[in-house]
Amino acid sequence: MADSFSKKENFKKKQQKLKEKAQRREERKENNDKGKTLDEMFMYVDANGQLTSTPPDHGEKEEIDINNIQLGAAPIEAEEAIKTGIVTFLSEKGYGFITEDKTKENIFFHNNNCIDQIKKGNKVSFEKEKSPKGFSATEIRLVK
């Protein structure tokens, strides 16, 4: 029996795929990078941080004074203990938020931490304390 048209087309497609696969295999053999020498595979970083294939010139080294090198972590600058801000939100439930003047950060507070009676919009001074959910304000006083 004679083959149908679709069988002939499928056979042609398979033959074409085999040819393409053989061609790709030959290209891979020609462009093989596995045979490079060790020196060809090395990359160097120059003084500007760019990758180059040539080794850096050690004659251009910059002299650094040993006394200028800081060992360890940078010293932490002491923050002011008492900060100021404006009460931006105050709930009847006894909590609110203060916007700090310098950083514009919202800090939570509770009425139990208020020394003076405060209202929304009052300028207050407070101490910042780390709590499990972030920072909270304590020792809250009205600024006069």
TrEMBL record:
Gene3D superfamilies: Nucleic acid-binding proteins. Residues 82-142 form the CSD domain. Residues 17-39 have a biased composition (Basic and acidic residues). It comes from the Bacteria. Residues 1-39 are annotated as: Disordered. It holds the Pfam family CSD. This is Cold shock domain-containing protein.
